[in-house]
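Reader question, answered in our methods column.
A reader sent in the components of a multi-part assembly and asked whether the whole thing could be modeled at once rather than chain by chain. We filled in our standard form and ran it. Here is what they sent:
COMPLEX SIZE: two components
ENTRIES:
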Amino acid sequence: MNTGPYSDEKVQKYIAAEFIPVKSQCVWDKRTELMKQFDIAWTPTLMVHDVTGKEHHRVVGFVPTDDFLAHLKLGKAKMSFNRFRFADAVENFSTVIEQHPDAGAVPEAVFYLGVTTYWKSHDPKGLRRAYDTLAARFPQSEWARRALPYKQIPL
Amino acid sequence: MTEIKWEKDFHKAVELAGKTNKPIFQDFWFDG
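And here is the structure of the entire assembly that came back:
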């Protein structure tokens, strides 16, 4: 059962320490209630929920180990962000960026770190710094385009 | 090696999450 990224000890330790892990089998000819509840149309679909079972992040398709860990941490960060726990969110988005610099989740983490920094301080410079980072490191990313309005913010 | 102890029941996972204050990681998978 622990194959793919789950065979990696770092992944095993992180999931065991930070999450309640649950596996839900999909049946395509007779969709399960959970598949209907979460609109599951392809596998693997990986989701991070808060303690009430509310979804905060999902990934569809295979992801290798480093991307996988980055998505788990991004999910925790978005959960903090969505619940206005900005100090935790800053720490968690920063963790994604610093510990997984080459992961596909990083542009999204940079964008949200900028927004979270703004919410925490009400200083718009955090938004401009997010744009600058995205424009410099990930210019082709959709997240760089989403941050484009922040280019106008003076530093 | 740390074995991942998977729950199979999502509702039980939510119950455990509430008790432990840990978020839930859910993997929808297909054996085929």
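What stands out: Residues 10-20 of chain B form the longest helix (11 residues). The first strand of chain B starts at residue 24 and ends at 29.
Send us your own complexes using the same form.
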